[in-house]
Design goal:
Length: 95
């Protein structure tokens, strides 16, 4: 059976499910979840405005609320991805 190809950002997979984007490898200890809370229309296109960023443990055995390590709200998807990427890199280095 063939493996699925995921979009990547800085070498890590990204998966979108509705208004939620998961960033990172689920085989690693940590992942980042980005929740798009609101959008704005720019030149006829809807783009993310307010985005919640969460650094989380990837262990599915732990209750979701207990898996959250860090949380912040950012304006714009780029700012949210930037913070999430930095948090994830630091967390994975400290393992």
């Amino acid at each position: 059976m063939a493996e699925k190809e995921f979009m990547t950002y800085k070498g890590k997979p990204m998966v979108r499910c509705g208004d939620t984007i998961y960033y990172g490898d689920t085989a690693d200890k940590y992942i980042v979840m980005l929740k798009i809370n609101s959008t704005v229309t720019v030149d006829g296109n809807e783009v993310p405005d307010k985005v919640t960023v969460q650094l989380m443990l990837s262990d599915q055995e732990i209750k979701k609320s207990d898996r959250i390590i860090k949380k912040s709200e950012k304006t714009g998807l780029y700012n949210a991805m930037d913070v999430g990427c930095i948090w994830l890199e630091r967390a994975l280095k400290s393992e």
